[in-house]
Amino acid sequence: MTTTFGSRLMAGLQKLGRSLMLPIAVLPVAGLLLRLGQPDLLDIGFIANAGNAIFSNLALIFAIGVAVGFADDDNGAAGLAGVIGYLVLNAVLETLNPDINMGVLSGIIIGSVAGVLYNRYKAIKLPDYLAFFGGRRFIPIVTGLSAVVLGGLFGLIWPPIQQGIDQLGQWLIDAGDLGLFVYGVLNRILIVTGLHHVLNSFVWFVFGSYDGVTGDLNRFFAGDPTAGSFMAGFFPVMMFGLPAAALAMYHAAPRSRRAQVGGLLLSLALTAFLTGVTEPIEFSFMFLAPALYAMHAILTGISMAVMNMLDVKLGFTFSAGAFDYALSYGLSTNGWMMIPVGLVYFVLYYGIFRWAIVRFDLPTPGREPEPATTSVSRDPGERGPAFVTALGGAANMVSVGACTTRLRLVMNDDAAIDEPALKALGARGILHLRGGGLQVILGPIADAVADDIRSAVRDHGKTLAAAPAVEDDALSTDARLDEASRKAWMAALGGAGNIRSVAAVATTRLRLELGDRGKVDESALAGLGAAGIQDLERGVVHLVLGRQAGAIANGIDTRSS
């Protein structure tokens, strides 16, 4: 497999996105303590100060969490190295230029460095007279020395970078509705790669400053009356829009299968409404209906802009669910207006989803072909072994990790996995990535399932590393059809002369420009695996194929014949 700089960069960013979730997970308790201790609630100073202690040390917490997240085996030695590196880096910067304020970025950077150094040097062997400092004990030492070098480097280059970040953040803030719309759309689109956490870390923890704290989230809980714009717009979408989408999917399912999918969709809707965790719902239609997901991203951007127009300021510590809404309401500006906006979004999402699912016959839950039944264990104690079996056995697994809602694995052979079994175990989506990577969308139980898998694999005498992120294979152009399959596709599409252009689009579709639409044999296409055909403008059609779209596009591209 050829590794490019771009694929290595994407892999690193995806791993950073996963690692950021560990320190972010402590924010709900910090927000709860800080909010409950305020004068308008319990008015207990030590409770408020307990929460503020976490917010005041976010950079250090991120240094620890990111370092552990980057470490192959989540070892605490990486976290200790992150602490050492952060303290050294801060001391050097304070000495060189007290005006430098890297904020949470200093913790993210040094945590990443500590994690990478841990992976590289955790088994280092030193000469006998230094053997005590070998192995994992070497990591805090080398991280501390690296922090001295980084401190000197950032002391020189960070002032202009800090100014640029301030200007970018100020543009997003000053751009008002446009900046919020762009952020909202990008936030949803980047969920596909898991990189939305990287974007969020800048907006929530870096951009803007107030009373010594930076970032929209920090400033909101510090009492900044201008903060909360970059969080308020998520509430109507997560509390009202996506639950309405789940209701639309339920009503669009055949009556005979509503009981089968009703419990699932209700749990997805409640998870989004109460906690703001939306990936399980989003992955249920993201690849089956990419145009519908694009509309969801646009509606999210519009919600961000509309809430700003209405001067609504709301914040959250984890995500935009009902728990955080209740927690932050007392600090909000016009927080009550989220309810009428949310009700409008409920109607919009329900109408758009119900119409699109029926009009284009989308295979949303309850409408997909019923898979062959696979017997899987439901005993919680057997969950790990059941997942190991569905993933092709312990010998097929190289590493496993998890973020908030998805397993991140590297497999020896991802073709050996049993997708129906994974779906029977609760998988809401399965992403096949380049280099043997695999992501399984499970919802909030993902981290616990990863632990169960590691435990089950240990019973087979094998130890798994935490999964590194790998580049999504959806856009890969390496795969090809065999000649027999190529001829079958060409015949079903009316012959090579009938195909003017072909391209894989939106991950799972082919866009074809045809000379004569009437020559297409739809029955033959269905037999070849096409889940649907959509007519667009004259002579242009989309075929819904799944992740093999790229290989089929390569095989029937007449320019490569």
From TrEMBL:
Compartment(s) of residence: Cell membrane
Protein name: N-acetylglucosamine-specific PTS transporter subunit IIBC
Claim: Kinase is one of the keywords in the record: yes
The organism of origin for this protein: Salinicola lusitanus
Domain PTS EIIB type-1: 381-463, 483-561
CDD domains documented for this protein: PTS_IIB_glc (cd00212)
SUPFAM superfamilies assigned: Glucose permease domain IIB
Record PANTHER family: CYTOCHROME C-TYPE SYNTHESIS PROTEIN AND PTS TRANSMEMBRANE COMPONENT, PTS SYSTEM N-ACETYLGLUCOSAMINE-SPECIFIC EIICBA COMPONENT
The gene coding this protein: nagE
